[in-house]
Each structure stands twice: as C-alpha cells, then as structure tokens.
Amino acid sequence: MNKNTKFIQGNEACVEGALYAGLDFFAGYPITPSTEIAEHLAKRLPEKGGKFIQMEDEIASLCAIIGASLTGHKVMTATSGPGFSLMQEALSYAVMTEIPCVIVDVQRGGPSTGIPTHGSQGDVNQARWGTHGDHAIIALTASNHQDIFEVTVNAFNLAETYRTPVILLFDEITGHMREPLTIPEKGKLELVQRLRTSVKQGVDYHPYLPREDGRLPMSDFGDVHRYNVTGLVHDMWGFPSSEPKAAYELLRHLVDKIENRANKIAMFKEYHMEDAECVLISYGASARSSLHVVEDRRIRGERLGLIELQTLWPFPSDIIREKCADSKYVMVVEQNMGQILHEVKLSVDRPDRVFLANRIDGVFITPLDIMNILRLIQGKGV
Amino acid sequence: MAVKDYIRERFLPHIWCPGCGHGTVMSGLIRAVEQLGINKNDMVMVSGIGCSARISGYLDFHTLHTIHGRALAFATGVKLSKPDLNCIVPMGDGDALAIGGNHFIHAARRNIDITAIVMNNRIYGMTGGQFSPLSGIGVNATTAPYLNIDNAFDVVKLAKAAGATFVARTTTYHAKQITDLIMQAITHKGFSVVEILSQCPTHFGRKNKEGSAVDMMKRYREITTPIGSKKKKENPDLIERGIFVQENNPEYCIEYDKIIKKAMKG
Amino acid sequence: MEKKKLKQHAINREWCKGCGICVEFCPKKVIELDRKEKVIVVYPEKCIACKLCELRCPDLAIEIETE
Q1: pLDDT the model gives residue C6
Q2: CA of B2, closest CA in chain A: separation in Å?
C-alpha cells in the first residue's frame, strides 16, 4: 500500500483535505456524527502551528472562525443538523460580509435531534435557504473518501476565490464509514490562496469594491488598512448605508458572483451517460448505491446512466437539462423527501418524467431499494 | 490631546441622543488608547448590536460590527488567531448579558485577553425602551408597563464568578476613572470587564422619572462610592466603584502557544 | 505637576447636541448654552483648564487647548 494511503473514516478524510488546503484555525462544538472532525483537528492543528478551539456552542464556533478569517487565516467549523441550525445566524453574516470560511455539516436524520447516529440528506434545502434574506450559497458533497478529500480542498478554494462561506454537506454514512484514502502529493491539487490587496498604506482601500474579474482583494486585520465590517448594508468601504442604490448593488453582487458562475462552480461525475435512456441523479452516500445499480444493470444491457452531483448549490440546472435531454426517465436518488428532486424537475424539459427513489427512515438506501422503484417506473412491477 | 486622530470624523455628529452616556465612554476609551500609545493598526474593536455597538463605526481601528450578543465569540477568533492584536469589545446590556450572556461567561472562563466594556444603561435603547437583564425590579419599560419583576444581574459579581481576571466599575460622571480603568483593563493580560453605568435619558430617564442626562449623572455621583469606603459601611445600598478583581491567571492565548510547542515536539 | 494654562476652548458646534452636561458640571461656571442650545464660552478668564467638560462631553465637542 502507498505510504500516503490511510484506512480511515470519512470525517478524517475531510480533516486531511482541510489540512492539505491550508486550514490553520478551527472552532467547533462536539456533535454526532461530526465530532471526529473536531477531535482529529484538536490533535493535528497545533502540530503544524495552527489553532483549535472548542467553543461554548455552534453559534460561537462560526462567529470565531469568521473572526479568525479576518486576520488572514483559512478557517473551518464542523457540525450536524441541530448545530447547523444554530449557525444560520452567523452564516448570513459571513455571506453579507464576504468572509471566506468552510462549514461542514455531517448530516444526521432530522428534524430536531432526529437520529444522531444514522445518515440522511435532509439538510440540503437548509444549506440553501436556512438563513434569512436573499442570498446565494455554495454547497458541495461527496460519496467516497477520495472525493471528500478533493471536495474539501475545493471548498477552501471556492471560499477564497469568491470571498464566501462554503458548506460541505456530508452525511453520517460516509462520515463514519472506513475506506482507503490516498493523500495526493503536495502541489498535486491546486490551492487558491487569500487574495490580498496590493494597495499601499495611505492609499484608499475599498474592501467591498469588486475588481473587474469579480474578486475582492482582502486586507488582514492588524495590517495597514483599517476598515469596517458590518452585517448592515454597506458601501465599498464597509460602512453602513441605507441608500437604495447601495442595497440593490450589494444584494445583486452577493447573488450574481455565485449564481452567474453556476456552471463554473459545478462539480459532478458521470457514469455511463453516453447512451443512457434512464438517468439516475444522486449525490453523497446515496450515489454509492446508485452507481451499484447502474453498473449492475449495464451488465444486463439496460441503458442506465448516473450523474453524481458534487456541487448541490448553486444547482447546476443548465448541465442537468442538457444531460437529461435525451433520456426517457430521470430518477433522483436521495435520502430525504425530494429536496434535489424539486430542483431537477425545475431544470428539465419534461418534469413529469422525473421520479424519486428515497429512504427517510435513517437506513442507508440500498441498490435493491432503487431497483424496486426503477421496476415500478418501467412498469415491470416489484 | 488629539481625540480626532482616533475617530472617523466624517461620521460625526454621532447617532446617540443628546446626553447619552455612550459618547462619554467612547471619549474615555479613546483617551485610554491614546495614553497607552497603542498603534491604531494593532487595535481591533468588535461590537454587537445596539446603541453601544455603534462605537465601532466611529473609531479608526480595525472594526467588526457583528451580530447581537456574539461580539465576544468573533473577538475570540480574532484574538486567538492573532494574539498580538488588542481586542476591545464594547457591549450593551443585551449584548453582554441577555443574548450574549453565554459568550460572556465563557470568554471570562477562558481568561482570553480581551477587554469587554459593558455600558450599562439598564434599558434596550435602540429598540425603544424595553427592559434588559440589568434593569432590575420596579423599572418602567415598554415591555414592563406594570413595572419590571425580573431581577437584575450584578455584572461585577457575574464576571468575577465566571473567571474574569480584571473586573472594575465606574460611571459616566466619573469620566477620569473611565480612562484610568480602561487603560488598566487593556494593559491587563487576561479577560477584563469594565462596567460603566451610562445614562439613557431618552428611554430610561424619561420613563423612570430620573430627569435629564445631567440629573442622571448627579444621581451616579450620589448612589456610588469607592470600593470599601466609609460611606459604603454606613449605607450598604451604595454601588461601589473601582477595581474589584485584578489577578494574574494563565491567559488563554499564551496557554495555547504552549500546546503548540508541546504538539510540535510530537 | 505644573498647572496648565488655558489657551482656548475649541468647540465643535456641529457636534454639540446641547445636553448641558458640560455647563452643569463646570466647577467655575465658564460655559453656557446659547439660544440655539449650543455650548459657548462666557467667562474664559475663569477657566482652570480642569478639562472636566472635555472629558464628560458625550459629543466630543469640546477640547481644552492649553499653552
């Protein structure tokens, strides 16, 4: 076995990805099934001079990493449903103030305390709309440890590129499952570093004035540019404004910088899509069973394909529409009551041909579950 | 004295009502920073929401105007990630002890080197005069039209019990003491709390028949006394002013640096 | 410590909100509010440059300049 290969849990794969990306500040509060992320980082971060702090709750955790991001650090927190609910307040603060940070939600069954030790994908819409006000958000997911690693690295890259919080929506199943992870050599994966302003001391610096390419260079707290950060509608210096023009332009900027780049931000994988009559769309742990079904049926000559989404938000509507254009059926496989199903229906030309295969009882959806529903759709009975 | 060197002049006159004590606190704070000779680039002010939180917008520091009650959590991230910075958190009644109460006691417990300035006006001013956890029994407020039955926190006792290693109190009448206490709080290595009784003539004074800002400040002179004074012995109801706690206990960021050294050795 | 001597009261009328705190607590009754409820200096010769007005002014509107 490669010396860089480890047999570990998905939560640890996320830790490895974060460290590879340059994480150096983590604040969190223990909650099943995400706790291992905090435990590993408590040990690993100080080994490389980074910092870990266990806060009094999840609210404080997200607030603390936002503070640490402003001093120029790559930051992350990790939680599960109930904690993610508590983070919604600071999440929109990070959106509004354009602070790069990564928030991991290892999903459990919900609502409320739900089933802490069982998986679900029930927080997909919470990631999109859990916090108040119009906004755009980036949320990524993955189905296996190698992908968890890479998606985590990408989350940091997107956070820095777009000056935005990025949510990693993992689930209890992949989070606690053990499988091999091979950590890429240093330099193999591209890392986006903090874009700092080149404006010199004494020259007017605008922390909230986008460059032509849409990026906003930052200045660390403690550096020569003293500016204001506020959750209120603000001008290009970061000072509160109640001007309708300022409010309009800020909101448009916050949404457009992400929504207008949906195709660029979209990460997905395709399996047997070249001639697929029936397209499965899945993500996270559910995509593992979906892939099993597709490969199993291909052997028997059935033209099944799979699109495995890694970017859930902004939802890659154009890509889904294009990929599903020639299919007879589309089946969304997810462990909730149809949160991505809804998006797929909105995206495709024939929403009546889009079906749902799901489980909501905390039990991992099996290939057989998917097969049974597929046979029903095809009119073959169960 | 060059107070103007520390403010963002274009935003003044400030939003506070005539006679509001918060301006006096801001003035005292500026003088403290000036007398300590701290470089403005080394100053971070983190505030929450409310009248008191608006201080951050007026001062020419690195300023972070955050969410109601969460300022200390943000400040903890700033301070731990860059311990060389001086972190000051101005807080109102709600920020410090209602919605922010949990963050307050935990910041104190960690003894992280942050200076919290609690501007106690016993009322929620910005939302128009609702009672706060510092109002106390018998106070008239828009949400206590039959007079308040909620007990008040004692900021000093709470901060002390939670582990703050510098705890002091004064009032806006005692303006020189504001500067003196804030200077000592900033210099102190650990979590510092300075409670400053600050009049809200608009929402507290008017409703509770305490008169004008001037009358409220005169009252501060009458109802307070230096710690351990003879007057206090004669009249135990007087509120004490001065430094209640000044201890040298391990500071969080310094302790964390030791963890890094330990972890790096392997 | 040598007593500082007053040069002038630098008053920022735009910032003054006329609360009267400086007037009330001036130990020598040097200042007053005018008809527009802004602070003015009436008896500068009586000023002992104690700076209490400056320190208490919530509007940062008074500065005592000394020689």
Answers
A1: 85
A2: 18
For residue A287, the SS3 value is: helix
Burial of B28 (0-12, 13-18, 19+ CB in 10 A): buried
Question: Could you tell me if A30 and A153 lie in one domain?
Answer: yes
Residues of B in contact with A218 (CB under 8 A): none
Q: Which of A246, A233, A262, A220 is nearest to A99 (CA)?
A: A220
- Name the minimum distance, in Å, from the CA of C50 to any CA of chain B: 11
**What is the C-alpha to C-alpha distance for residues B154 and B168, in angstroms, rounded to an integer?**
12
Low-confidence ranges of chain B (pLDDT < 50): none
Which residues sit opposite A51 in a β-bridge?
A25
Residue C47 predicted with pLDDT over 80: yes
Q: How many domains does chain A have?
A: 2
- The whole-number pLDDT of residue C2 equals 64
Q: For residue range A144-180, list pLDDT tens digits in order.
A: 999 999 999 999 999 999 999 999 999 999 999 999 9
Closest C-alpha to A61, from A101, A32, A100, A19: A101
Please indicate whether, in this complex, the C-beta atoms of A226 and B41 are within 8 angstroms of each other. yes
C/A touch flag: 3 or more CB pairs below 8 Å: no
Q: State pLDDT tens for residues A49-101.
A: 999 999 999 999 999 999 999 999 999 999 999 999 999 999 999 999 999 99
Residue of chain C minimizing CA distance to B17: C17
Q: According to the model, what pLDDT value does residue B180 have?
A: 98
Distance CA A192, CA B57 (A): 32
Indicate the Cα dihedral angle B129, B133, B134, B136, nearest 10°.
Answer: 90
User: CA A160, CA B103: separation in Å to the nearest integer?
Assistant: 28
Please, are residues A128 and A139 in contact by the beta-carbon 8 Å criterion?
yes
B contacts of C55 (beta carbons < 8 Å): 24, 27-28, 31, 175-176, 179
Residue B166: the pLDDT is 98
B26 → chain C, closest CA residue: C58
How many angstroms from the chain centroid is the CA of residue A198? Answer: 30
Query: Is the pLDDT confidence value at C1 over 80?
Result: no
Helix-strand-coil split of chain A, %, nearest 5: 40, 20, 40
- Domain range for A113 is 5-182
Contact of B21 with chain C, judged by CB distance below 8 Å, is answered with yes
Span A125-150, pLDDT tens digits: 999 999 999 999 999 999 999 999 99
Domain C6-66, CATH among 3.30.70.100, 3.90.550.10, 3.30.70.20, 1.10.10.60: 3.30.70.20
CATH assignment at residue B11: 3.40.50.970
Cα nearest neighbour of A227 on chain B: B62
- Judge whether C10 is closer than 8 Å to chain B, CB to CB: no
Q: Hey, what are A233's tokens?
A: 């509608």
Give the chains touching C; criterion: ≥3 Cβ pairs < 8 Å: B
ipTM value for the complex: 0.97
Predicted pLDDT at A380: 84
> What does each C-alpha distance from A142 to A168, A191, A196, A334, B66 come to in angstroms?
9, 19, 30, 13, 33
Give residue B57's domain range. Answer: 3-265
